[in-house]
């Protein structure tokens, strides 16, 4: 099945055309995208480092996760809204870019993992998961989110 016509349609949408034809919209949207990515990265990194036994060790893991959860959700919403706008402005370029498909794959897996298995470990009662399971959960989280960021950056250079 050829998805090129779908990607051509995406790029021809009004938001895609407006962003693409504007001199300043893409860079401004990208700035918000990167700021949201930084907020998400900081939130995830703080919890993952706590799970690895580094930093904020006096704060219970569940409490840290509860405090940072709204920031994670807010940043994910912002990342997805800005990402969709950027995608619509260059959908055909994305169609021919393997890093784009890697990024989307990593993003979907990372979101599912973060809001299911990882969240379960973070919200668990102290001692219900072994330290090694916490470390594995944190390392997997870091790997998935690194894959999103690396693939996203790779898009520009492909």
Report low-confidence residues grouped into runs of 5 or more.
Answer: none
Principal-axes shape call: elongated
Main β-sheet description:
none
Q: What is the distance, rounded to the nearest whole angstrom, between the alpha carbons of the first and last residues? A: 24 Å
Say how many strands there are. Answer: 0
Report the structural category: mainly alpha
Q: Determine Rg (CA atoms, Å).
A: 18 Å
Strand content: under 5%
Give the number of helices: 7
Order of helices and strands: HHHHHHH
**Average pLDDT metric:** 94
What level of helicity do the residues show? over 70%
Explain what this protein looks like in three dimensions.
- By secondary structure, the chain is an all-alpha fold.
- About 85% of the residues lie in helices and about 0% in strands.
- The protein starts with a helix and ends with a helix.
Please sum up the structure shown:
By secondary structure, the chain is mostly helical.
List the helices and strands and how they pair.
Layout: H1 4-12, H2 14-21, H3 25-51, H4 61-89, H5 91-95, H6 98-123, H7 131-157
Helix pairs in contact: 2-4, 3-4, 3-7, 6-7
């Amino acid at each position: 099945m050829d998805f090129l016509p779908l990607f051509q349609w995406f790029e021809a949408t009004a938001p895609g055309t407006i962003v693409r034809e504007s001199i300043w919209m893409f860079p401004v949207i990208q700035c918000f995208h990167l700021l949201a990515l930084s907020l998400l990265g900081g939130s995830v990194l703080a919890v993952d480092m706590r799970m690895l036994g580094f930093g904020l060790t006096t704060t219970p893991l569940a409490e840290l996760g509860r405090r940072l959860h709204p920031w994670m959700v807010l940043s994910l919403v912002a990342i997805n809204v800005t990402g969709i706008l950027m995608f619509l402005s260059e959908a055909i370029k994305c169609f021919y870019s393997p890093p784009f498909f890697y990024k989307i794959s990593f993003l979907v897996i990372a979101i599912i993992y973060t809001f299911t298995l990882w969240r379960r470990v973070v919200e668990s009662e102290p001692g219900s998961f072994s330290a090694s399971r916490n470390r594995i959960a944190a390392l997997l989280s870091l790997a998935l989110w690194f894959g999103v960021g690396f693939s996203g950056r790779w898009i520009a250079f492909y």
